[in-house]
Amino acid sequence: MNRPMIEAADLSKRFDVGGGFLKPSRLLHAVDGVSLSVNKGETFAIVGESGCGKSTLARLLMRLLTPSSGRITIEGHDISDIAGADLRQLRRDVQFIFQDPFSSLNPRLTVAKLVAEPLEAHRPEMTASQRRAEVARLLSQVGLRPEHMDRFPHEFSGGQRQRIGIARALASGPRVLIGDEPVSALDVSVQAQVINLLSDLRDSLGLTLIVIAHDLAVIRQMSDRVAVMYLGRIVETGPTDAIFERPRHPYTRALLAAIPGPDGGGGAGLAGETPSPIDPPTGCHFRTRCEFARDECARTRPPAEPTGEMSEVACLRWRDIGEATDVMPVAPKRSAAAEARFRLYRDAMGQTENNSQQGNNR
Ligand SMILES: Nc1ncnc2c1ncn2[C@@H]1O[C@H](COP(=O)(O)OP(=O)(O)OP(=O)(O)O)[C@@H](O)[C@H]1O
What we know:
This is ATP-binding cassette domain-containing protein. Keywords: ATP-binding, Nucleotide-binding, Transport. GO terms for molecular function: ATP binding. Residues 6-256 form the ABC transporter domain. The structure is a single chain. Helix 5 packs parallel to helix 6. This protein has helices at 54-61, 84-93, 111-122, 128-141, 158-170, 188-205, 216-222, 240-245, 250-257, 295-299, 318-321, 336-349, 353-357, and strands spanning 4-16, 27-39, 43-47, 69-74, 77-78, 94-97, 176-180, 208-212, 225-230, 233-239, 305-308, 311-313. It folds into two domains: 4-19 and 27-223, P-loop containing nucleotide triphosphate hydrolases (Rossmann fold, 3-Layer(aba) Sandwich), CATH 3.40.50.300; 246-357, no CATH class. It is α/β, with parallel strands linked by helices. The relative contact order is 0.12. The longest helix is centred in the middle third of the chain and has 18 residues, at 188-205. 34% of the residues lie in helices and 20% in strands. Bound molecules: adenosine-5'-triphosphate (ATP). Adenosine-5'-triphosphate (ATP) is lined by residues 15, 17, 28, 30, 48, 50-56, 277.
């Protein structure tokens, strides 16, 4: 379980987003020096706000994008700049599950054709009848009845269409599945079924799963370990329970605080704008929204430090602020309503005014 399947070392992706007439070009730092290790057979989740670089990171790990710098290895083999036959082999080994089963399936093809397509590409030696038998096997594997293979996608429900997408992904015999919001387009009742299917396939086929999701409930349900991203960087990594029950990074705390409570009311959450990835804050990217920031946070990029429990946190102040036994809101630029909630929350937590002032030296 603990052998690395995919590793990334100091991985970055910068997009040239142009500077306009007579202006120097500008670089957008979508992924900024990410290092991670995903173990064989585990479900590894990547979470963070929209635009923090989750999809770009996933596309780098699949080599749909070429890194600007840094290395990626799969079972020790460097795939950072492979091409030709090596890249084709990677396309078999690492498969993608799309968010939207409606738009990712060609509506004019039958399910049999949709699942046969990747077989034709990756296993051209198969005869037509072998392919049809394999399509039937793959459909059964994802819990669909093979006798429906000559129907079209619109004749299936959302959950069934996502299963067709998963059957397509399995057709090449992959070792890794990467899902970008794989259940977010589905009804909540169907989400659990698809999550269970993915977990069962992981166990029975020995797959490694990497899941991008913004829904923390989904992440908690399906992942073994979690990486929390903010503005292109991983700020905290650890076993799912440790991240959810004892978050250390102020951003992780804020994300968890934003989960609505059992009464449906919004959590205290994260206020303030996310800075632009074209001109991110110096030092710690999160410092402009962090209650605990100090002058040093503007000067130094926080290194990822082990905190025990197989976790790492990239925060210069993690030792001072300790672990959260309950999540608390952070953000200097709160709206009036958020400020009122924060005061209530802080009073309930018995925090001093002094603590809340500590971050105002930015
Ligand atoms: N091809 C591209 N060219 C320029 N900028 C890009 C490109 N792809 C992504 N970006 C930018 O990189 C940043 C990270 O985008 P990315 O899609 O990876 O984030 P994300 O966390 O997956 O967001 P979401 O959850 O909304 O999909 C964003 O600022 C985005 O606008």
